[in-house]
Amino acid sequence: MALTKDxxxxxxxxxxxxxxxxxxxxxxxxxxxxxxxxxxxxxxxKPNGTTIQVLKNRLVHKAIASNDTLKDVxxxxxxxxxxxxxxxxxxxxxxxxxxxxxxxNPTIQFVGxxxxxxxFLSADEVKxxxxxxxxxxxIAEVVAMLSSPLxxxxxxxxxxxxxxxxxxxxxxxx
Length: 174
Hints:
This protein has helices at residues 5-21, 35-45, 57-66, 93-104, 123-130, 135-173, and strands at 24-29, 50-54, 82-87, 109-115, 120-122. It is an alpha+beta fold.
């Protein structure tokens, strides 16, 4: 059943709000992907805050045109059967979710991405983005790097204290 004009406007408004709140919207083709695989992709992407949706390109074009920040984004690449991955928390998460899924399902191919500041990224740029570590991984690496000198000092001091105590104990027993 076809959508009425009001229903289409509701969809456009929803897409516009998703684009506005998303730090990075990754676009990919999915031709040849089964419904079961798409459901699995949605389940796999959900824990990191990524929402996967299959949308009509015409409605996405209208949503982009109605958004002040994104109105200058080139929509030339948005052709064919496309899925859109939105994430409002992490720029890298949607690209990583799709890249991870694409390893087992080569029917998923990157088309590009729309950044929150209105720039369209190419498929190669999205692949490079997908290879970056995630935000929690980066935070963990920084914390480990910052705590490393402190751990070295503590272990160095504790090692010397043990040797000192062993020496004192040896003198006391003689």
